[in-house]
Write the structure tokens for this entry.
Amino acid sequence: MDWLEIEKGLSNKSQENYKRFLEKFFSWLKLNHLENLKPSELTLDHIWKYRVFLSRQYLSKNKKPLKRSTQNYYLIALRQLLTFFTEKDISSVPPEKVKLAREKDEKIVNFLTVEQVQKLLNAPDTSNILGLRDRAILETFFSTGLRVGELTSLNREQIKIKADSEELEISIIGKGSRPRTVYFSERAIEWLRKYLEKRNDQEKALFINYRGKIPSTRLTIRTMERIIKKYAIMVGLPFQTSCHTLRHSFATDLLLKGVDLRVVQEFLGHKNIVTTQIYTHVTRPHLKEIHRKFHGFKKEKE
């Protein structure tokens, strides 16, 4: 875990995930009376049996088998352990020998059309502070493409809106402790201004709870998800609409308007372009139309 933090720069949350994934491997070793196995004694046959074990695991909630993508999280954690051995000159199986499970289907990206986003943005009752907060949340999500954890972590002091200003950009530390710049639209700035003008508390967080008589505490990720779900249901949007749906909608909107995939990668804070490529199949029909409309020669009339 120290190596993941210092050498790989992983956040505390990522370290916790890797620890949890590796505990599955150690549990499997113990189950097979291999808990005293030395790194040098680990073989490809052990890894193969572990992969079979993962493929036959079932979720406790619905008794469905683990998705291949989930199986891969466990295998990637094992790869990192083997990479650690390699860097420390500890003899073991090379990390590249751990093959990941093939995913049968492309990941499905749930996103909203611009019309659906507009319906969602207009849903809150902005005659009160609660509605102003929620409108500011929705506008910020669609304007910036922030992850929900990044949004809940924002503080008031980061949002420095000058009088009559239509520009706002801030620096954040995103996933994997990677810094990036986030840009706000004119609309998002306007609703943030209206929301902050109504704030008369001393809380540090940008978005806070209003349950009791006195506003307090930073909104949690779970509460943020409930807020999005509430308004989605209110305006008749798909039930699976979530905070991440708005992030997907942000990315898809940019791509459909011709923004380069590398630029979208920067906006989203993806470390690898492969992660951003999940959106390409969404935009394929649009690309086909562009090709038909603008490329090549028109058929000559007879």
Remarks:
- The beta strands are 168-173, 179-184, 208-209, 216-218.
- DSSP finds 13 helices and four strands in the chain.
- The mean pLDDT is 86.
